[in-house]
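Contributing new records

If you add data, match the layout below exactly. Sequence lines come first and carry their own label; structure lines follow with theirs. Keep one chain per record. Anything else will be rejected by the validation script.
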Amino acid sequence: MWNSETYGQLGLSEIPDKLMLFYDRNAVYGEPMELTIGTDSQNHASGTKIVTVISMICKGHGGIFFYETEFRDLIKVVKQKLETETYISLETAKMLLDELDNGGYRILVDNCPLSIHIDAGNAPQGKTRDLIQGLTGWVHAMGYDCEVKPDSYSASTIADRLSK
């Protein structure tokens, strides 16, 4: 199940309607809108908590997001965590695009670029810096744009807060 601060719990098949409502309300501003998917995970005593976020923003006018939480066995290796997060984001993007295409929401696909947000950054001493090229290459090979820190807000801000 997906969660929304606005709409409560809903299935993935219900999200396109909510995205379309947001799009229709904000199209009057004439500002770009973007659809993003990002995943972050945090290790806890009982395992790894993984949160995936689907967000849509209208620049300068706010946004909406939906999130799904799952728990897995503890993932200790940073590379494995980032690969898992990226894989989940890519799978979510595929499922969402299938819903959008099959449900007559082509206007969203055509007018709201979809990008995958990866929770990795270029900090000189960061643990994830050396993984960026491989992860972004993977996302691009799957046909998506992507962002890393500091521009990967769906993963590094929204999902990060929800995974703690």
